[in-house]
Specification:
The protein has helices spanning 47-56, 77-82, 106-114, 126-145; strands at residues 2-3, 6-13, 18-23, 67-73, 88-93, 96-103, 120-124. It has 153 residues and is α+β, with helices and mostly antiparallel strands. Helix 3 (106-114) crosses helix 4 (126-145). The termini are far apart.
Length: 153
C-alpha cells in the first residue's frame, strides 16, 4: 500500500494483539524469517481503507475523518480546488465556493480552512464554529503575551 509517496506493510502484531502499519523503508528483514502466520481478515476488508483510516485517526474501518465540516469561502472554486488535496469543493458563485473538509481534530480542521486566507462562513457543524473561537482565543493570548495590542474580535 502507498500513502503520500511511501510504501507501507499492514500486518497483525502478535505482541500488541492488533493491526499495525509499518513503513517499508524502516523494515529490516531477518533470516530465518520465523514461523508462518495465520491469515486474518483486515478490518473493513480493504487495505486502502484501513491505511486511510489509520492516518486519519478515524478509529474505525470507514476511512472517514473523525471531524468533518463545511464552510463557504470568499474564493473562486477553481482557486480552492488547486490547493485542496482531500475534500469537496463546489462553486456557489463566480467568487465563492462551498468547501467540505475533514481532519483528525476540530482545531486542526479550523486551522486547515484558515490557510485559504479568505473570509469564512461556517455552515456546520457547531463544533467547527467552536474550534474557530478556540483558535481565536489562543491566538489572542499569544499576541497579548508578546506585548502586542490585542485585536478587536
Amino acid at each position: 500500500m502507498t500513502w503520500d509517496g511511501r510504501w507501507y506493510l499492514i500486518a497483525w502484531d502478535l505482541d500488541r494483539d492488533d493491526w499495525r502499519t509499518f513503513r517499508a523503508d524502516r523494515i529490516t528483514p531477518r533470516t530465518p524469517n520465523g514461523p508462518r502466520f495465520t491469515p486474518r481478515v483486515l478490518p473493513g476488508g480493504d487495505v486502502a481503507t484501513f491505511v486511510t483510516s489509520t492516518f486519519r485517526g478515524s478509529g474505525d474501518a470507514s476511512g472517514n475523518w473523525p471531524c468533518q465540516g463545511t464552510v463557504i469561502l470568499d474564493l473562486p472554486a477553481a482557486t480552492v480546488a488547486l490547493y485542496t488535496r482531500e475534500g469537496l469543493v463546489e462553486e456557489t458563485s463566480p467568487h465563492r465556493c462551498r468547501l467540505t473538509l475533514g481532519s483528525w481534530s476540530w482545531p486542526s480542521l479550523a486551522a486547515a480552512i484558515a490557510r485559504y486566507d479568505a473570509d469564512i462562513e461556517v455552515i456546520g457543524p457547531d463544533e467547527l464554529t467552536d474550534a474557530f473561537e478556540h483558535l481565536a482565543r489562543r491566538f489572542t493570548r499569544t499576541i497579548t503575551a508578546h506585548g502586542i495590542a490585542s485585536p478587536t474580535l
